[in-house]
Write a structure and sequence with these properties.
Elements (H helix, E strand, L loop, with lengths): L2 H6 L2 H7 L3 H34 L10 H26 L2 H18 L7 H5 L3 H9 L6 H4 L4 H19 L8
Helix pairs in contact: 3-4, 4-5, 4-7, 4-9, 7-9
């Protein structure tokens, strides 16, 4: 939503139409988050219904799906806003994609290299918040930290808010 405009130069037109750059970023972030939240909620709900129909009755314990579905939708929306913020900072599609993939995956991948600090380093990853929300067996407290799923998501959202605030440096930069 941003890097394509920066590479083609149409971002100048956007900022000529709306000179308040914070407003432009907020509108883009709202749109990205809303679209991702709705699409994720629909696709996860469909996957849950299909999976429930395919599994044998009573063989697997199921929890309440609604908190997890809303949490997963919120997690994807936060990741999308993170991508928007990084794209705003980097202004290059390949660089933004690489940076976001690194932010999403590297804490989980490199966490085991830090010994006892693994659960704190790996626990900062948005992927870990998603594992906790989906209640996978990989989300044990000794590997992904002792925070619950919703506090983990709030921690990731706070990090995304920090990157978004840094992206508002866009006000001070030329286009």
């Amino acid at each position: 939503m941003v890097t394509g405009e920066c590479s083609s130069g149409t971002i100048r037109t956007t900022f000529a139409a709306v000179p308040h750059r914070g407003t432009v970023f907020a509108a883009k972030a709202t749109l990205v988050a809303a679209v991702m939240c709705v699409l994720t909620l629909l696709s996860c709900s469909t996957a849950y219904v299909v999976g429930d129909a395919m599994l044998p009755e009573g063989r697997y314990a199921q929890g309440d799906p609604l908190p997890a579905l809303f949490g997963i939708a919120a997690s994807f929306a936060v990741a999308a806003v993170l991508g928007l913020a990084v794209g705003t900072l980097v202004r290059h599609s390949a660089g933004a994609v690489t940076t976001v993939i690194g932010l999403l995956l590297l804490p989980s991948l490199f966490g085991p290299l830090f010994g006892n600090a693994e659960r704190w380093i790996a626990g900062l990853s948005p992927a870990v918040a998603l594992e906790k929300l989906t209640q996978t067996s990989d989300a044990a407290a000794d590997t992904v930290g002792s925070l619950g799923p919703w506090p983990s998501l709030l921690l990731v959202a706070a990090g995304t808010a920090g990157v978004s605030l840094a992206a508002l440096l866009l006000r001070r930069r030329d286009v």
